[in-house]
Design goal:
The complex is a heterodimer of chains A (about 90) and B (about 425). With about 90 residues, chain A is of the alpha+beta class. Chain A has a single domain, classed as Folate-binding superfamily (Folate-binding fold). Chain A has 2 helices and 6 strands. In chain A, the strands form 2 sheets. Chain A has a 4-stranded antiparallel β-sheet, with no helix packed on it. A two-stranded antiparallel sheet of chain A has the order 1-2. In chain A, a hairpin with a 3-residue loop joins strand 1 and strand 2. The relative contact order of chain A is 0.23. With about 425 residues, chain B is of the alpha+beta class. In chain B, strand 18 and strand 19 form a beta hairpin. The longest helix of chain B is centred in the C-terminal third of the chain and has 18 residues. The chains are: A alpha+beta (about 90), B alpha+beta (about 425). Chains A and B meet through strand 3 and helix 1 of A and strand 12 and strand 16 of B. Bound molecules: flavin-adenine dinucleotide (FAD) and zinc ion. The site of flavin-adenine dinucleotide has 40 residues of chain B, from helix 2, strand 12, strand 17 and helix 10. Zinc ion (ZN) binds next to loops of chain A.
Chain lengths: ~90, ~425
């Protein structure tokens, strides 16, 4: 099991999460050239090593997270909320 | 090369089995080859064989970083079928199945191809429609297919879970009788032996770690056994395609590397004569019995990207649940081994056999977890591409440009998410 330390729920097994995929992809603007869209949708770096990826804590807080993980060893390097501002938003509303 | 024959078996019975020789030579690399194939899996070895056999080409090397057949070639669940539907795939996999049917004779090596039927169960009324469509397409394009009713299925495979309260009730099956299994190691050794016999150098423990290019051409490859020049170069490294691609400074590929696990139980007496797939409208699980008696099975990939050849426990549980839900009688069997391989999942679930931005580089990749059955045709068409520098009509759309053109070859209709294809 890969243990992912969710910033909201604490350490949980990876089977509580849904895997999103490559978190470094930046989707272009709607009006950007079609080739940019092609690259974002179909082309992958497919890193052998540490990559940033998205995971969603579906059986927990349901938050999307950005996880730095080594694809050669499965070791997790860091976990943070996908929306960097989410902590502020939550604190403001509470 | 000594031909294997009944006579040889008899003769060696009399001389204490002393008459057998090494089956192929472990070569040291020369400085220069006309054609270099990177990757000594089934696809690389088959390519080298057909280059030498079909096109009478010489001065060919296969470079393998470990030992031949140690990658996915030796890790798969050996299922062979041709029940693909889409144009290009249909012809390609049918051609592959035909090559399998004669492969032991072709290679003079018993690859133990056993046409024991591929029985794809369906589990919902709409799955019947789906199966019928596939059945019709197969019949109309020169293949074989049968639809088995529940009654027939119960007679043929009595010990599946037909109970009313099963999680996914069985409605019937789509069957391809010419499909089956083969012995994966024998396929690697058979191709290696036959290729070597035609003059191909097979070089093991030779890792490519640099690609030297000049004016859109590969000049040479840096390897753990020194620099080797190549006239033409083919990549056939399955799960490691992106790494080689980036070594050649070609950027990104429409491929993600994931890992797939497989399992084998302790050997038991004959229980299952067919390949059984728990699929359409249900879960995802496939099982067959090896000649040694072990039940060989697998299910989904591990769902997250990985280059580690090690699997994770949630899938073990998942696959075990599937096993017991279709074949409750095996619930007390022990697992003997389980392992995993790095598979090259493509954006539409179909492969690439194509030219590349470099003039003398050719790509063979994107096999998802269905590349075992493809091995003979993959070698056949890749050799044809390399020898003639143009794709055969059958694989003309299996290139890297297809996504730009909106021509996805997506059998499952799962969209551009590699982990969903299978
Ligand atoms: C668990 C599992 C079950 C499967 N089940 C089935 C099945 O039932 N039916 C089916 O049709 N398919 C199945 N597959 C898929 C099939 O095994 C693969 O698609 C197929 O084997 C890939 O082609 P290959 O044999 O050439 O790959 P590989 O055997 O992986 O060959 C690639 C080779 O390239 C070498 N290499 C990598 N990098 C370098 C480098 N830098 N320099 C030199 N050499 C390098 C590797 O060491 C490796 O030997 C399964 C796969 C797995 C993992
Ligand atoms: Zn959480």
């Amino acid at each position: 099991m890969i243990i992912i330390k969710c910033p909201f729920c604490g350490s949980r097994g990876h089977n509580e999460f849904k895997y999103g995929g490559d978190g470094s992809i930046k989707y272009p603007d709607l009006h950007d050239p079609i080739t940019d869209w092609h690259d974002a949708v179909f082309q992958r770096k497919n890193i052998a090593g540490i990559q940033t990826e998205t995971w969603q804590h579906i059986h927990g807080c349901r938050m999307w997270l950005l996880v730095d993980r080594d694809t050669l060893t499965h070791k997790i390097i860091s976990v943070r909320p996908a929306n960097p501002n989410i902590i502020n938003i939550l604190e403001k509303n509470s | 090369m000594k031909q294997f024959s009944t006579w040889q078996v008899l003769k060696n019975g009399f001389i204490n089995q002393k008459g057998w020789k090494r089956q192929w030579e472990d070569a040291a690399p020369k400085k220069n080859y006309d054609i270099i194939i990177v990757g000594g899996g089934l696809h690389g070895l088959a390519t080298a064989y057909y280059l030498a056999k079909n096109f009478k080409l010489k001065n060919i090397a296969v470079l393998e970083k470990n030992w031949i057949g140690g990658g996915n070639a030796g890790r798969n669940t050996t299922i062979i079928r041709s029940n693909y539907m889409l144009k290009g795939n249909r012809e390609f996999y049918e051609h592959s199945l035909k090559l399998w049917e004669n492969l032991s004779h072709e290679l003079n090596y018993n690859v133990m191809f056993s046409q024991r039927s591929h029985v794809s169960l369906y589990h919902s009324p709409s799955a019947i429609d789906n199966a019928s469509r596939r059945y019709n397409i197969m019949l109309n394009t020169g293949s074989d297919a049968e639809l088995w009713s529940l009654k027939t299925l119960k007679k043929k495979i009595p010990h599946l879970n037909y109970s009313d309260d099963s999680r996914f009730p069985i409605y019937g099956a789509l069957v391809q009788k010419r499909a089956g299994t083969a012995r994966h190691d024998a396929v690697a050794w058979g191709y290696a032996r036959a290729a070597n016999n035609l003059g191909v150098d097979i070089i093991q423990n030779c890792e490519v770690n640099g690609v030297i290019t000049k004016n859109n051409n590969i000049v040479s490859l840096n390897t753990s056994k020194g620099n080797i020049q190549g006239g033409k170069v083919g990549f056939a490294v399955a799960g490691h395609s992106s790494i080689l691609w980036q070594m050649a400074n070609l950027g990104n590929l429409p491929i993600e590397s994931h890992k797939l696990q497989a399992f084998v139980t302790e050997p038991i007496k004959p229980l299952l004569d067919q390949v059984v797939v728990f699929s359409v409208g249900g879960a995802h699980f496939y099982i067959s019995q090896s000649d040694k008696g072990g039940l060989v099975f697998g299910g989904d990939i591990d769902w997250y990207k990985s280059y580690a050849q090690k699997g994770n426990l949630p899938i073990v549980q998942d696959v075990a649940e599937c096993a017991i839900s279709v074949l409750p009688c095996i619930s007390r069997l022990k697992l003997l081994r389980h392992w995993s391989g790095v598979v090259d999942m493509s954006m539409d679930g179909s492969f690439f056999i194509c030219k590349t931005p470099l003039n003398n580089l050719y790509l063979n990749a994107g096999w998802n977890y269905g590349g075992f059955k493809a091995s003979p045709a993959s070698g056949w068409y890749f050799a044809d591409l390399i020898a003639n520098d143009r794709p055969n009509r059958v694989i003309q759309n299996h290139n890297l440009k297809r996504f730009e053109k909106g021509y996805q070859i997506d059998e499952r209709g799962a969209g551009p998410d590699p982990k969903l294809h299978g």
